[in-house]
Write a structure and sequence with these properties.
Purple Acid Phosphatase, chain A, domain 2; six-stranded mixed β-sheet; about 475 residues; alpha/beta; about 30% strand
């Protein structure tokens, strides 16, 4: 009898001792990859290296896996290459980013994914074909890791930043309102994570509101954070877009409580090793010689996104003979264009959304309303344009805040509020501003905006960036 009691006591002591030992959860996280398939062999090698040390490694994406690379986006089905590569790397879960809804290819991609899409603030109808889970619990060597997902939702429009037609019939709720419903998960799990595609500022608000979270893996704003940023005791991670870095996160758990949180950023682009299988897959997906056709020569480099966008708006104007052209911020996806050959691939990377050109007949007054509504009085939201110059008066304390703006025609005259102008833009701008221009004449063409750019470049043969006076900024 004493022998049995002693054995039971020893087993209990060993169990208590085991529980008291610090245990770790290791996570590899990325955000806003935007189909940068050329860096996935390095990312796979990083995952391989970490998995050799930590067999229970979890791999998560904070969304926007797609859009920005024609090899991926124009594949059939659209974005299959990125899905196949994520499968091969061994992703465990992904948030839905706003660009996951592009081109309506999400339902087949979900069926082809060997990882879960996690999103708590989307409520799809059965007809949509979108199958996601609001949360997922992962077992990491006996530790329970609960992951809740959220996607950005515009407070004005009520859906993520994508073409409205792509989310027709799908209901969304604000992320902040939904997360509160999952506090119970923190009581049942050893680690609770928010997989977030809502932007850094919104992540900080989440940390302030929900201290029961342990970690926020963020995306959407492309914010390069410093390793180990804590807000209200909650670790928040995020890197710039297009996969320059990945994050290795270590969460330490002791006696059922999180006692340590660490993050290190790993340079993906300069990582010495590559996964051979993933490299072969990338080579296969990139084998399309049509994309390498040269359409024009850039005599001078286009050094930033505003310079590239000026060229895009000039193309819209020249190819349609319109009076004014607009392209939304975020509608131009190349930050720079070097001097030399401009290929079809470059054009499709500049404008990857398959938007159609839309012609509108708007009065000067309607144009002012459209720009005010679209920009929400912030410079970083104000559309790119051609056929106009604009004088902004901005706040001295917040130079992004527009106090007022004035529009001028190319001859230097103020835009006539009563005159009707032919305006060319893309279908995303036209649809999202439908309430402002509902009484205007709007005609969607069958031509992609990328075709306008392609034709503009081909007809000119050579282009160069020239300084212009489209924007004048005054502080007050």
């Amino acid at each position: 009898m004493k022998r049995h009691i002693l054995a039971a006591w020893m087993l209990l002591t060993m169990a208590v001792s085991t529980m008291a030992q610090p245990r770790e959860v290791h996570i590899l996280a990325v955000n806003d990859m935007h189909a940068t398939i050329s860096l996935t062999p390095q990312l796979a090698a990083i995952a391989d290296s970490l998995r050799a040390l930590y067999p229970d490694l979890l791999i998560f994406s904070a969304g926007d896996n797609r859009t920005g690379n024609p090899f991926n986006d124009m594949y059939e089905p659209s974005s299959y290459p990125m899905t196949a590569l994520m499968n091969q790397i061994g992703f465990n879960g992904s948030a839905l980013g706003n660009h996951e809804f592009d081109v309506k290819s999400l339902p087949p991609l979900i069926g082809l994914s060997r990882f879960r899409y996690i999103c708590a603030n989307i409520f799809p109808t059965p007809e949509s074909g979108i199958s996601v889970v609001p949360y997922e619990v992962f077992d990491v060597n006996g530790l329970k890791v609960g992951v809740i997902g959220v996607v950005q939702v515009s407070s004005q429009k009520g859906f993520p930043s994508t073409h409205p037609a792509n989310v027709k019939g799908i209901r969304f709720e604000q992320p902040h309102d939904v997360v509160s419903r999952y506090e119970w998960l923190s009581h049942e799990c050893d680690v609770t994570i928010l997989l977030s595609h809502i932007g850094f500022e919104a992540d900080v608000k989440m940390a302030d509101s929900y201290p029961w979270l342990d970690l926020i893996i963020g995306g959407h704003s492309h914010t390069q954070l410093k390793p180990g940023e804590l807000h209200n005791g909650i670790l928040i991670t995020q890197n710039k877009n297009k996969l320059p870095r990945a994050t290795h996160i270590t969460i330490t758990v002791e006696d059922g409580h999180v006692t340590g949180k660490e993050a290190e950023y790993i340079d993906v682009s300069n990582f010495a090793s590559r996964n051979a299988i993933v490299e072969q897959m990338v080579s296969h997906f990139s084998n399309n010689p049509i994309f390498q056709c040269v359409v024009a020569q850039a005599e001078t480099p286009f050094e930033n996104v505003d310079q590239v966008a000026d060229m895009v708006c000039d193309a819209f104007l020249a190819e349609t003979n319109a009076d004014i052209a607009f392209q939304n911020r975020g509608g131009v996806r190349m930050d720079k264009l070097p001097a030399g050959n401009i290929t079809m691939l470059d054009v499709l990377q500049i404008d990857p959304f398959n938007n159609h050109a839309v012609e509108m007949k708007l009065t000067g007054r309607q144009i002012m309303r459209l720009l005010t509504d679209f920009s929400q009085c912030y410079l970083y939201r104000f559309p790119h344009f051609a056929g106009l110059s604009c004088e902004f008066t901005v706040d001295k304390a917040d130079t992004m805040k527009i106090r007022k703006f004035r529009l001028f025609t190319p001859d230097g005259r103020p835009l006539n509020p009563d005159k009707t102008y032919r305006v060319i833009t893309n279908s995303y701008v036209a649809t999202t501003c439908k309430e402002v221009i509902e009484k205007a004449s709007v005609k969607e063409t069958d031509e992609f905006t990328s075709n306008l750019i392609m034709r503009y470049l081909q007809q000119r043969g050579t282009i160069s960036h020239k300084k212009n006076n489209r924007i004048i900024i005054k502080k007050r």
